[in-house]
Design goal:
By secondary structure, the protein is an alpha/beta fold. The protein has 15 helices and 14 strands. The longest helix is centred in the middle third of the chain and has 36 residues, at 160-195. Residues 1-8, 139-155 and 426-438 have low confidence and may be disordered.
Length: 438
């Protein structure tokens, strides 16, 4: 809606400042990748350092003059900042540079606009763009005076800017309403999966870590794969069979990035709920990159921000083919899978990954042998309704000997619904046996 992209790359001047006021600095190499992914053609990269950003133009007067000269020399069409600019800073810079100025958030939004393929994804991107552009509309309409009507309609009226803001607010409200319907549809699907006792495993990780390639390797799907940032935007769900667990739903989700704009987190709530409601997270990590530790930290930060920080997690170190390393499975002090080393491209370690997933999902399963008396028929019926009964035998004393297997969450819900605890089952059986013996 707001981005007019030419078919060829736009000549761009990139700007990155090292600021003493920043606790966590942006990576200039990653920013260059972002610009290339957005279709930009970097002509020059301006680097510098300041204690704090200039309030009017972000950069100082000397650095600003350097950018002006580079724009004129290269005939650049756009200047991109690896920082978040205020609306006034963007306006002031555009007045001086006489070309478009886009900050880091704008670049990421543009990439998302290109990648969105489904109607839901396009709505989410448009919402984020509209929210971002709300305070930036004035730069396009500063030359317009108030609208003038015909005879008998002249008056102060409203400015073109005010009209656009009103239309913008109406569009945002409409998109929120449509995305709420999407959210309810997704929640209905999740409820159906929970009712059918099908666990959900969500793949998360830094952008370009190889999630979609690994997703295709595990599910034989045909999800779009490319060596670029944010190649996957729309979530994809596939069914996968695991030994000892049965069917699960595997979800491929959008990649994270350092300092993911809050507008995107807010706009993509419906999509990110697939991550928040998962039973297990596969944290896909690019094992071959020098920024591995930083990327892990950034993903954990985003997971905490969206409320998924407490979900059980399995780290999957991908791209071991670039390290010439053999696949392996690392376990924690309790003997549970903690880390798997794989190659999504060659498929090496895929069997170990499925084994680790099965162990972790089965670890949260309750396997019990129950002795139920005839008065506990309702509990027996509930277990059968959940499909939890593995085997049943009846003794001469009328006791039903059941072997059950079900997720711990369902087991706990069932105990609460029946108003009993695990010990109470044995106590009630004993009471019934003693009464029958008298």
């Amino acid at each position: 809606m707001f981005f007019d992209r030419p078919e060829s790359g736009e000549l761009a001047i990139l700007v990155h400042l090292k600021l003493d006021s920043e606790d966590q600095r942006e990576d200039p190499r990653e920013f260059e990748e972002l610009v290339l992914s957005a279709g930009g053609d970097p002509a020059a990269f301006v680097m510098g350092s300041r204690k704090t950003p200039h309030p009017r133009t972000f950069v100082g007067s000397g650095k600003l003059q350097e950018i002006v000269e580079l724009v004129e020399f290269h005939e650049a069409e756009i200047v991109m900042f690896n920082h978040t600019l205020s609306a006034s800073q963007e306006r002031n810079l555009e007045e001086v540079l006489e070309c478009r100025v886009v900050d880091r958030t704008g670049v990421i939004l543009d990439i998302f606009a290109q990648r969105a393929r489904t109607n839901e994804g396009q709505l989410q991107v448009e919402l984020a763009q509209l929210e971002h552009s709300r305070t930036r509309l004035v730069r396009g309409w500063t030359h317009l005076e108030r609208q003038k009507g015909g005879i008998g309609l002249r008056g102060p009226g409203e400015t073109q800017l005010e009209t656009d803001r009103r239309l913008l607010a109406a569009r945002i409200k409409t998109i929120h309403s449509r995305l709420e319907k999407v959210r309810k549809q997704r929640e209905q699907g999740r409820r159906s999966r929970r009712k059918a006792e099908i666990p959900t495993v969500a793949m998360v990780g830094y952008t370009n870590a190889g999630k979609s390639t690994l997703f295709n390797q595990l599910t034989q799907a045909n999800v779009f794969v490319a060596d670029q940032l944010f190649a996957t935007l729309d979530p994809t769900l596939r069914r996968l069979e695991l030994d000892e667990v049965g069917p699960i739903v595997l979800a491929d989700t959008v990649g994270f990035i350092a300092h993911l704009p809050h507008k995107l987190v807010e706009a993509f709530k419906a999509t990110l709920e697939e991550t928040r409601s998962a039973d297990l997270l596969l944290h896909i990590i690019d094992a071959a990159t020098d920024e591995r530790d930083r990327n892990i930290y950034e993903v954990q930060s985003v997971l905490g921000e969206i409320g998924a920080g407490d979900i059980p997690q399995l780290q999957v170190y991908n791209k071991i083919d670039l390290l010439e390393q053999a696949p392996r499975l690392d376990r924690n002090a309790d003997g549970l899978p903690e880390r798997v080393w794989v190659s999504a491209v060659t498929g090496a370690g895929a069997d170990l990954l499925q084994q680790a997933m099965a162990e972790l999902l089965a670890h949260d399963m309750v396997e019990q042998k129950l002795d139920l008396s005839p008065v506990q028929g309702r509990l027996r019926a509930a277990l059968y309704k959940l499909g939890a009964v593995v085997n049943e035998e009846h003794g001469d004393d009328g006791i039903a000997h059941l072997e059950v297997r079900l997720p711990r969450s369902e087991w706990n819900r069932l105990m609460v619904a029946e108003g009993i605890g695990e010990r109470a089952i044995a106590d009630e059986n004993k009471w019934w046996l003693e009464e029958a013996a008298q």
